[in-house]
Amino acid sequence: MPQSRIQIQVWTARFLGTREHCYDFLDLIDTFAGGALKPARWNYFEPLQQSYTCESQPKIVSRWTHERSPGWVSNLLFFRRKKPRVEIALDIWRSSRPLLNSAHITLAANSFRDPDMIVHLVKKLIGWSNAVYATVRHTDQQLWLVAQLTPLARLQQLEWLTYFGQPYVLMFGEDRIRTAGFHALEDFGGGIMALSAGRPDDHGLARISHQ
After folding, report:
1. Measured distance CA(79)–CA(81) in Å, rounded
2. CA distances from 55 to 51, 52, 63, 190 (A)
3. Tens digits of per-residue pLDDT, 114-152?
4. Whole-prediction pTM value?
């Protein structure tokens, strides 16, 4: 049986492909929770064969900020460790066509059990990226709808944690979000963070999602 995972997605309208964003992100994954996210390997394609060390930072920054042609940036970066299992993917984009930049983090659920820690990580990512939308789901949730497009065009279902940035608060209406019956709401980063249950592995959430 596949190991249960926590999946975090963070989307932003801000261009992330700067040196400052890169160094801030590397500092975040190096130091969060005593280094629990710190990768062992990285690359900009599979397989991830490059060791993640202090000496690798200049090369990471170079790939993070790489321009394919003047004004056109389309970079993917991947980071991974095995124990505890952590997988990170960054999608960095800038062109004449609007497209959100994003960070995707997958965690081994049995190693990251504390919901407060997960919420704290999401807040760090929102602050770092100036996110407009974010979600967290547990893979034991029985129903999972994947949005093939970015949140510019389509939102997937509500997950255990859903962060509505200011554009989505304005689109849906603040009163509608606040009266929707969420387990908990918190104003954060100019938007609203909504929790559907006390824990991402809450069985009640799984049953609700299945209906």
Report:
1. 7
2. 9, 8, 14, 37
3. 999 999 999 999 999 999 999 999 988 766 566 667 887
4. 0.91
